[in-house]
Design goal:
heterodimer; A: 322 residues; mainly alpha; B: mainly alpha; MetI-like fold; 2 domains
């Protein structure tokens, strides 16, 4: 331990404002190296995947993104079915998760007494702690059969001919199953952020609304929610980012067929799933490189979504004066 | 007129607030279902063999997952050994540098890295370590998990260090300590509980990850602990068994999932009750 009396106390104290002593300079340098390692790691990720994907980019150009045929045997590599599957399943998941999450957050912040709110909040945090592969396991053996026989078959029988999203045979393993499992997985993220920004709405805003004669719901809907809206949007986009990159659970339930189908009951395929399924068995440099390019596209999309969400959340945090 | 208007408003109020309660119940349903299925389907296959035997060949009864349990333990420990020094160091850097533009950039990149899909992390490590070594390995799997660990722990460490009151730091400086001694001797010990919580939560999370291990650790039906050999992991086995056509393997997958989730939940619960998280008291 430091002994303050061991020689040169003043000498050590005084220069530390400008340059610091030698030990501290070394210490700062070491810390900076740790700090620098993170952007370096990030750059290295981009570089490694980019280099490996380069042959495919050169070979296919933009056609890779717009091509709808994926047939490695015939060396046809079009990534559109995967991009479609990823985007559609994630957006559908967000459409299910967002209203439920906001409902939960309102219930917890505005309505539920403390003894009820704490355990419910804890339970939703548990949802976030369940590993993706366990969701997938449950999806295969419980969710998919249930969706197939209870939801999809009746809907397909009665409305299949009229409404395109309900048409075709009910496989169970489908875009719908993927979206449902994703929505369960992103609810904890969205509701946590929503709850946080709702709690941050100033008390006097609420009280002003109530004093003007607003009902509780009107106070929530017309005052609290608009105030918290940017944060809620940020949380939703963070959830979307999670859904886009989710791999195991959706691979296990979406059916893994590279088609672009209008029906929710038809199997789909996502970028993350095709990587999980085909990467280990990919033969041939071009096939491997095509998968690398899919990884790069997935990386790019999630990075953009995350940056956007991060900027929103930071702006809200700044406005909140923290 | 006014009466019917206020009646409508009252009813809207009641209906909408009830709906928020319904949403909460709907969210709790999957959680209860998942946990109850794990309990009923998983507990039947858990016995002493499960923890001591290697997986049985297809068609044979019994068998266990001791190789996957050992594999997960080694992967997570090695990932911690590789990633935690960097993560904690970077976290302290961010807490000390606070507002410098470069620190803001590092913080931003760490947040963005938290959102990188885990499968992409796996592929990155494949293109780096696996290509370089020419084989799947424990080392590659650990590096993949470490890459996931670093941004998580960096940010929690930073936040915990920042929560330490200024006065403590100033006290150290005023006593004539150098900056590094103030930080390492006073500030970090004060934030130790929070930092540890962040580390444990992150370790719990990576121990449940499958996607980064698919092309790095790869899996191995035998017991293995050498750095340059493929190794099994609990999540990998769950995946492999779940998509297999065999009922016996499905049973084992449920059992493994129950063990995995018990592991993850026990760690999370322990951190919650053992270490007081100053973050929660705000």
């Amino acid at each position: 331990m430091a002994n303050p009396a061991d020689g040169g106390l003043m000498a050590r104290l005084l220069p530390s404002r400008s340059k610091g002593n030698v030990q501290d300079q070394f210490y700062r340098l070491a810390l900076l190296l740790f700090g620098v390692s993170i952007p370096l790691l990030f750059l290295f990720i981009v570089l490694r995947i980019g280099t490996e994907a380069w042959p495919a980019m050169e070979a296919f150009g933009w056609g890779f993104i717009t091509g709808t045929e994926w047939n490695p045997v015939l060396r046809e590599f079009g990534a559109l079915p995967f991009i479609f599957g990823t985007v559609v399943s994630s957006v559908l998941a967000l459409m299910i998760a967002l209203p439920l999450s906001v409902g939960l957050a309102i219930f917890l912040t505005e309505l539920a007494p403390r003894w009820l709110a704490a355990p419910i909040a804890f339970a939703t945090e548990l949802l976030a702690a369940i590993p993706s592969v366990v969701y997938g396991l449950w999806g295969i053996f419980v969710l998919v059969p249930w969706l197939r026989f209870t939801i999809q078959e009746p809907l397909s029988r009665h409305f299949g001919d009229v409404i395109p999203i309900f048409e075709g045979p009910a496989y169970g393993f489908s875009m719908m199953a993927g979206a449902v499992i994703l929505s369960i997985m992103i609810i904890p993220f969205i509701s946590a952020v929503t709850r946080e920004v709702l709690t941050a709405v100033p008390r006097d805003q609420r009280e002003a609304a109530l004093a003007l004669g607003a009902t509780r719901w009107e106070m929530t809907w017309q005052v609290a929610l608009p105030y918290a809206l940017p944060g809620i949007i940020g949380g939703a986009i963070l959830g979307l980012g999670r859904a886009l990159g989710e791999t195991m659970a959706i691979t296990m339930v979406i059916g893994n067929r590279p088609d672009i189908a209008a029906s929710l009951f038809a199997p789909g395929y996502t970028m993350a799933s095709v990587l999980a399924n085909e990467f280990a068995e990919a033969t041939g440099a071009l096939y491997l490189s095509a998968l690398m390019e899919i990884a790069l596209i997935l990386f790019g999309i999630t990075i953009v979504v995350n940056i956007f969400a991060q900027l929103l959340v930071w702006r809200v945090a700044k406005r909140g004066g923290r | 007129m006014a009466d019917s208007l206020s009646r409508r408003r009252r009813w809207t109020n009641r209906i909408m607030l009830t709906l928020t309660g319904v949403a909460s119940v709907l969210i709790l349903v999957p959680l209860t279902l998942i946990l109850s299925y794990l309990m009923t389907a998983g507990s039947g296959a858990i016995n002493i063999d499960f923890f001591t035997q290697l997986p049985a060949p297809v068609g044979e009864e019994g068998g266990g997952m001791v190789n996957a349990l050992v594999g997960t333990l080694f992967l997570v420990l090695l990932a911690g050994a590789l990633g935690l020094p960097i993560a904690v160091g970077a976290g302290i850097y961010l807490a000390e540098a606070r507002k410098s533009p470069f620190a803001n950039l590092v913080r931003f990149i760490a947040d963005v890295m938290n959102g990188i899909p885990s499968i992409v992390t796996g592929i990155f490590v494949w293109a780096w370590i696996v290509l370089w070594m020419g084989r799947f390995s424990l080392l590659a799997g650990s590096v993949a998990l470490a890459v996931m660990l670093i941004p998580m722990v960096t940010r929690t460490t930073e936040e915990m260090v920042r929560l330490v009151p200024r006065e403590l730091r100033e006290g150290g400086i005023a006593l004539g300590f150098t900056r590094w001694r103030t930080t390492l001797g006073i500030v970090i010990p004060a934030a130790r509980g929070g930092i540890l919580t962040g580390i444990l939560v992150a370790l719990a999370r990576i121990s449940g990850e499958t996607a980064p291990l698919l092309f790095t650790a790869f899996g191995n039906p035998f017991m293995e602990w050498r750095l340059n050999e493929p190794i099994s992991a609990l999540p990998l086995l769950i995946y492999q068994y779940a998509i297999s056509p065999y009922d016996e393997w499905h049973r084992l997958a449920w059992a493994a999932a129950l063990v995995l989730i018990a592991l993850v939940l026990v760690i999370s619960l322990l951190t919650r009750f053992l270490i007081k998280d100053p973050h929660r008291e705000r």
